[in-house]
Amino acid sequence: MRSFSLIDFVSLFAALRWTVVLVVLALAFGAPLALGLAMGRISRFAGMRWTMAAIIQIIQSVPLLGLLFFFYFGMPVFLGIQVPAIIAVTIAYTLYTAAFLGEIWRGGLEAVKQAQWEAGSCLGLSLWQQFRHIIAPQALRLSLPPTVGFLVQLIKGTSLASILGFVELARAGQVVSAATFQPLLTYALVAAIYFALCLPLTLWSRSLEARLDGSR
Amino acid sequence: MALVEIRDVHKKFGRVDVLKGVSLDVEEGEIVTIIGRSGSGKSTLLRCINALESVDAGEIRVEGEKVHARMRDLKKFRQRVGIVFQAFNLFPHLKVERNITLAPLLTGRIDKAKARALAEDVLTRVGLADKIDAWPEQLSGGQQQRVAIARCLAMAPHLMLFDEVTSALDPELVGEVLKVMEAMAKQGMTMILVTHEMGFARNVADRIVFMHQGRVWEQGPPAKLFANPETPELASFIASAK
């Protein structure tokens, strides 16, 4: 046993790297997919709507832990493919992000009145122009608070990757705590780091909300 | 050739027959007002002219071109036929100027350098030049509706449709919108209006079309129609609208 030192402090911050990497990967792949799912959910084709709804329903119903296990342990068993842990984890977080963000954004898109699409189309705009210039900006503002809420969830959710061997923030906390026998101090520090990561996001979302809502 | 030719148009919503064989011609420069009770098919007819609804049978031609929801040049067509709605439908996230210039810019009608001047021009025509930098929600209902009209005018349409554009307004705001429309009528714009404003119909329209149960029941010049309705349905409608 040794006492809590600067090295422990540094190792927690070093582990933060994985937390950030996982969040960035999840967003980089998950957000475009979420947009696709959201647009599929409001498609005029019923088959498309149902398919997207089914995909979202399935992913949302499985615990994140289950997704991680499935892609890490399950893929080799069921599909005979051995994938590196980082890929398995990326797939799991991507799907998780896509399903939840997709549903949040779908809600935002549907909250914009149908008449806004109609007004755009009556001015001779294409469907894409209506979406891009009329619907999406309004939907974005409506979706912003829940989107950031989900982002905060995602940041904390990366702690689950520790069970697959990723030494991200939560796992590093375990290691440091075991080495120093100072769980209270260590976990308080871990919590503080998570808090410091999430707080600016929330503040940023508030200022963005105010900025997007220029009319008020 | 009439600017708008409507031939035996039928339209159903589910099992409800909304239009049961409507025929109507509108000449260039003509102001036609469609009146009738709720559910008589007035608004549906208007929406069919703009291909917002497709017809089940019969045909509609605007400037000789057959109108339907899947027409190849729908976007181009919509640029020639403006429509103003009861609920204004301004874009709340854009200032008045951008509300007006968005479509002309995106459709390539004008370039960026001319956008502001275009917005100023059409806003002047509706008497709101000083509101160019306002947000829609800072405007009264009547002002919002005039911006919606200006937004339409910015596309330089050949035909304008008005779907109960004063129905959502407080009574004291109706006049300013009607005045704008009257001025447009004087400048020779072809207009088809669905309205409950009998005074406007009487004073501005070249022709009144009374719709009843999905058909054109009676039509003619306002003076004749209001003074001597031929059918009991129109007589009772005029009596109840007073």
UniProtKB/TrEMBL annotation, chain A:
Its main location: membrane. It is found in: Cell inner membrane; Cell membrane. It is a multi-pass membrane protein. It comes from the Bacteria. InterPro entries: AA_ABC_transptr_permease_3TM, ArtM/GltK/GlnP/TcyL/YhdX-like, MetI-like, MetI-like_sf. Gene3D superfamilies: MetI-like. Keywords: Cell membrane, Membrane, Transmembrane, Transmembrane helix, Transport. Residues 12-205 form the ABC transmembrane type-1 domain. The chain crosses the membrane at residues 15-38, 50-73, 79-101, 142-164, 184-204. CDD domains: TM_PBP2 (cd06261). Belongs to the binding-protein-dependent transport system permease family. HisMQ subfamily. This is ABC transporter permease. It comes from Bradyrhizobium iriomotense.
Automatic annotation (TrEMBL), chain B:
InterPro entries: AAA+_ATPase, ABC_ATPase_HisP-typ, ABC_transporter-like_ATP-bd, ABC_transporter-like_CS, MetN_ABC_transporter-like, P-loop_NTPase. Pfam families: ABC_tran (PF00005). It is found in: Cell membrane. SMART domains: AAA (SM00382). Residues 4-238 form the ABC transporter domain. The keyword Cell membrane applies. It is a peripheral membrane protein. It comes from the Bacteria. One of its GO terms (molecular function) is ATP binding. CDD domains: ABC_HisP_GlnQ. Keywords: Amino-acid transport, ATP-binding, Cell membrane, Membrane, Nucleotide-binding, Transport. Involved in beta-(1-->2)glucan export. Transmembrane domains (TMD) form a pore in the inner membrane and the ATP-binding domain (NBD) is responsible for energy generation. Belongs to the ABC transporter superfamily. This is ABC transporter ATP-binding protein. It comes from Bradyrhizobium iriomotense.
